[in-house]
Design goal:
The structure is a single chain. This protein is α/β, with parallel strands linked by helices. The chain contains eleven helices and 16 strands. The protein has two domains: 2-147 and 290-339, Alpha-Beta Complex (Quinone Oxidoreductase, Chain A, domain 1); 150-286, NAD(P)-binding Rossmann-like Domain (Rossmann fold, 3-Layer(aba) Sandwich), CATH 3.40.50. The relative contact order is 0.16. Bound molecules: zinc ion. Zinc ion binds next to helix 2.
Amino acid sequence: MKAAVLEQRGREGLVLRDVPVPVRRDGEVLLRVHAAGLNRVDLYMRDNGSGITHALPQTLGVEAAGVVAEADADSGLKPGQKAVVYSNAFCGVCRYCLAGDQPLCLRAHIMGEHRDGGFAQYVAMPARCVLPLPDHVDLVDAGALLAAYLTAWRMLFGKRALRPGETVLVVGVGGGVAVACLQLALHAGARVLVTSSSDEKLARALSLGAAGGVNYRREKVARRILELTGGEGVDMVIDSVGEASWDDSLRSLRRGGRLVTCGATTGSNPPADIQRLFIRQLEVYGSTGGSLEECRQLIALLASGAIRPVIDRRFALEDLTAAFDRLERGEQFGKLVLTMAS
Ligand SMILES: [Zn+2]
């Protein structure tokens, strides 16, 4: 089969190769992959990968949707059935798994990080990580759902759930998680403000329903957000940018507001401004991935037609370098997806 294999670090080290179809172990499902979304973590794996235990060569890709090719008879899955992969091969027995909080699993093995991933014609994963889809669900939509949209779902609704009528600021709209947050927050009845360096991306966000946009290259973000909220500030900020936006994100919050982070693309060590945190009684918390239950809710939303992922562009697996280049340049609005020929 064809697969996107990382043989060595860097752009030239990720190559399309003919490799054997994975041998399915007991308890695993072999999925014929139709579509797999790209994510920032794929770039991190390609170029750095430190802190993630793995060996090269390795097939990348933390998402995959397709059709079941082989499964155990007692798995509840049948060959030919549409399915999507929950990328975290969780242990199922640690205290977090038992509490239904799989993203905190002590022995998590992530597809495309710790084991071979979805940028391939086939992938094998434990049956508990292969979630059936209704027949009418589009496999490209499903292949773009369980990384950015799942992350967004948990950020918005996981800990201190966004409520109808609240205002949320999504920093750096354009990336997969930010666009997902925009869509899901609107669906929940919230008012959404966005920032970007691109007027074109701000216009796209407004056309999707954002109530206001701030170009952070031209305007002071916190000052403009206060203007847009009658001087009060927003209830929640979604920030995956990190160091570069952190100060503005804290200053954009109302008293008692919360900042949720799921990434730090510009750096991990922003000023903390502890005085602002306690005087204004702000909350700051992190989020990564989502639970199986959150997957179920998200898949139900997709199946109902209430949400469709914004797909920026599809690339054939053979054009993976062009897809990675577009991701690296940050040109996309929404999800980039690789599709595999069967
Ligand atoms: Zn566990």
